[in-house]
Design goal:
Helix 12 packs parallel to helix 14. This protein has 422 residues and is an alpha/beta fold. The protein has 16 helices and 17 strands. Strand 8 and strand 9 form a beta hairpin. A six-stranded mixed β-sheet has the order 8-9-10-11-12-17, with helices on both faces. Strands 1-15-14 form a three-stranded antiparallel β-sheet. The protein has a three-stranded antiparallel β-sheet with strand order 2-3-7.
Length: 422
């Protein structure tokens, strides 16, 4: 009879509770899980140093092997989320913005709180939220758990691959919105519950008791622009890799260059021809190239735009081209800012870039075989600035976005680029 029940259970894919007694050689799930992580760690030790340029200049070989060995020893006591974060911290410790462990997916995927944050010049605020928390949209964050926002960001910083404070501000909101991260750091409770302390738009204190979103449950989100009926910022109006718009009051042409990627449906060379056709037809006086959302790609894509600007005498003089940069200007986006500054004498406006101009890049990736975690690594080193190693490319004219600017519908960097007189 027992054999018959066992056969039925196996046919329907259900292992009996005492299957280990029936087959003592069958590994328990805990042992199998540990073995899978060990295989992933062995793969990482084999592949990453062999693929990454100057790997053991960035971390001493004994330290790297000791970290991996210690992680292996602790596997039985660590949750999957803790293992992921330990790997993130290990690679973030290299201090290379392009090198790191991506967010887990599938069965290991992390959850999210029902809010999204942005770090403004005067601190973080709630940019969007699930509709049941709409009163929090546009509110200033003054506490995350028992920590100030600055303390919370400092707590997550070791897990973030970054090279400067701008890059940290760009990346930290996602970590502060993730229950598994805050649980592992003791900022959220064991069940993921977290208290968010705010100052609402009317100046009154507001406290949210947040729980992780339920996986698979539809969520209706609302944004600060929707709740306050604010005009959508110009750089948010389209999702394509590049587009332009003529601004007649300033006789300026706004070019949004979001990705260093050639769209085969609208090749960048064709786009540039259209840009200058519009500029010539409207006697445009200045061109504004917005790189604030440009996280990189192929640094050669921008070349037709640089060449076209150089061929138009009115854009070669100082004040003919303005380039907006910021914390999300990264990788080949930094190359584009450099090219426009050096070759077209563009005036840079905004915040410092989100990474160093001299550093490791050209970053492919591989996946660990069991967890499927994506590991990015660098195969090149670039030097864009000679005679030093600055933390960022700095703007010629600083312009940061404050929470007050957001709530008033202002874009200080764009306003400067439109009206500045050299």
């Amino acid at each position: 009879m027992r054999e018959a029940v066992l056969a039925v259970l196996l046919l329907v894919g259900i292992a009996p509770a005492n299957s280990a007694e029936t087959n003592p050689s069958a590994p328990t799930e805990a042992v199998a899980r540990e073995r899978r992580w060990q295989e992933d760690l062995d793969y990482l030790v084999r592949e990453l140093p062999a693929k990454h340029k100057d790997f053991f200049k960035l971390i001493p070989k004994p330290k790297f092997k000791s970290e991996i060995s210690g992680l292996k020893d602790e596997l039985p006591q660590l949750s999957d989320a803790q293992v992921v974060l330990r790997l993130k911290r290990l690679l973030a410790g290299l201090g290379v913005a392009h090198t790191g462990v991506g967010w887990p997916s599938g069965a290991l995927a992390f959850n999210q709180y029902p809010i999204s944050l942005y770090w403004y010049s005067d601190g973080p605020a709630v940019l969007s939220a699930a509709s049941e928390h709409r009163e929090a949209v546009g509110a200033r964050v003054v506490g995350i758990g028992s920590l100030t926002p600055e303390q919370a960001e400092a707590a997550v910083a070791p897990y973030i691959s970054h090279e400067n404070s701008g890059g940290l501000h760009a990346a930290s909101p996602r970590y502060l919105e993730t229950p598994e991260v805050l649980q592992c750091l003791g900022i959220a409770g064991p069940d993921g519950h977290m208290q968010l302390s705010l100052v609402a738009r009317d100046g009154k204190p507001l406290t949210l008791q947040l729980s992780p979103l339920e996986p698979g449950r539809p969520v209706q989100w609302t944004t600060v622009w929707k709740e306050l009926s604010l005009p959508t910022p110009l750089n948010h109006t389209r999702g394509t890799a590049y587009w332009y718009q003529y601004l007649p009051e300033a006789r300026a042409l706004y070019v949004h260059y979001r990705h260093c990627r050639n769209d085969p449906r609208y090749p960048f060379a064709s786009f540039v021809r259209d840009v200058f056709a519009c500029a010539d037809a409207n006697s445009v006086r200045r061109v504004i190239v917005d790189l604030r959302d440009n996280s990189g790609g192929d640094s050669m894509v921008v070349k037709p735009l640089v060449k076209g600007l150089k061929s138009h005498a009115r854009f070669k003089k100082k004040g003919g081209v303005y380039v907006l940069i910021g914390r999300h200007t990264f990788s080949s986006g930094i190359f584009a800012a450099r090219d426009l500054r050096d070759e077209v004498h563009a005036i840079l406006v905004g915040e410092p870039t989100g990474a160093k101009p001299n550093g490791y890049g050209n970053a492919p990736s591989f996946r660990l075989p069991n967890s499927k975690l994506e590991v990015s690594y660098c195969i090149s080193y670039f030097t864009l600035v000679k005679g030093g190693n600055p933390a960022a490319i700095d703007p010629d004219i600083p312009a940061s976005l404050s929470l007050a600017d957001l709530l008033a519908g202002r874009d200080p960097a764009l306003e400067i680029a439109l009206h500045h007189v050299p």
